[in-house]
Automatic annotation (TrEMBL):
One of its GO terms (molecular function) is galactokinase activity. SUPFAM superfamilies: GHMP Kinase, C-terminal domain, Ribosomal protein S5 domain 2-like. Gene3D superfamilies: 3.30.230.10, GHMP kinase, C-terminal domain. Mg(2+) binds at residues 126, 158. Its main location: cytoplasm. Residues 7-55 form the Galactokinase N-terminal domain. The active site is at 170 (proton acceptor). The keyword NADP does not apply. Its EC number is 2.7.1.6. InterPro entries: Galactokinase, Galactokinase_bac, Galactokinase_CS, GalKase_N, GHMP_kinase_C_dom, GHMP_kinase_C_sf, GHMP_kinase_N_dom, GHMP_knse_ATP-bd_CS. ATP binds at residues 66, 120-126. Catalyzes the transfer of the gamma-phosphate of ATP to D-galactose to form alpha-D-galactose-1-phosphate (Gal-1-P). This is Galactokinase.
Amino acid sequence: MNSDLSQKFVQIYQKEATNAFFAPGRINLIGEHTDYNGGLVLPCAIEFGTTVLTAPNNNNVLRLRSLNFDEFAEIPLQPGYAKNGDSWYNFPLGVADYFIRDGHKLQGLDMLYCGDVPISSGLSSSASIEVVTAYAFNELFNAGYSKLDLVKLSKAVENNFIGLNSGIMDQFAVTFGEKDKTMAINCDTLDYDLVNANLGDYILAVINTNKPRKLVESKYNERVEECSVALTALRQQLDIDDLCDIDLAAFTQNMHLIADQTILKRARHVVEENERVKQAINVLSKNNLAEFGQLMYASHDSLRNLYEVSGVELDTIVDYALTNPNVAGARMTGAGFGGCAIALVKKDSFDTFSNEVMAYYTSKIGYAPSVYQQRIGGGVGSITVNLQENNKV
């Protein structure tokens, strides 16, 4: 793909690219909607991702094009950018805005993006674009940001420029991912530990419902607000900053403070999910995939019944997985409202699993999902540029 991308760059810009960068997508193995509640998550980077090729120009403009979208932008480099509708280039535009407002002088740059992260699938295509752009600007213009700085900047773009009140997990996983390892991230302190992900006879199957979602237009921000209401109620008796500051026992003792039953369900999911992540870290580090799989199923049940961010498409995939003895566990991944599910499937049964889940899903939903194998990959970085052959390094 990178060789084709280099040739496309020449066709579009009439010159060769001088630099190239890659950032992966991510999946979250467990720990959903805990990130913006100061809790624990267990994500990993995947092989899908976003590549961007760049070359300087002398016109003091930022040219943003993608092979995945028709829209493109040619924007003078100046302070004060604003979001423009729902166009994909808002993500790199937001990154440029933050660099300029932070006092960094950007120079004219031609950029061509290409990604294989399914859009609106819950695999963090937006974080992949944000982080690869921030990393590229940091390298090309010697801005001096650390990787953690780039994570925080990219999250600020998502929250303040795009308008989605998400946590920091996506950008963190995309930046710091390591091959064959998951990251146990404390989203409050940003401390993290690498956890070996030896899947043994199993592989990760990613099942895209092919029901796209737009989180800004969904009830995502509503869930964030509901958690804030729950936190305010609990603070009547508890000195806490986030819902995940308490364990299940403390929550049970104080849940009478939350009068609204819907708000109570939201808070219960968050607290219990945070406990599940702790258990998952322990069993995964011991290669106990059977118990890890049961935690995945429990997580999905909670997201379906308490947090109510699943849906018939995601539930259909997990319902099928429960019937297949070659699946250790399955759950929705990402924020929900469509997107993807993941499953731990025995390697030698993947083809059968793929065919059967596609048939089952199609019979229930009326159209087919997409099923992929994914390995756990590394985080953002520079890659080689070569018109003949390009390989990630």
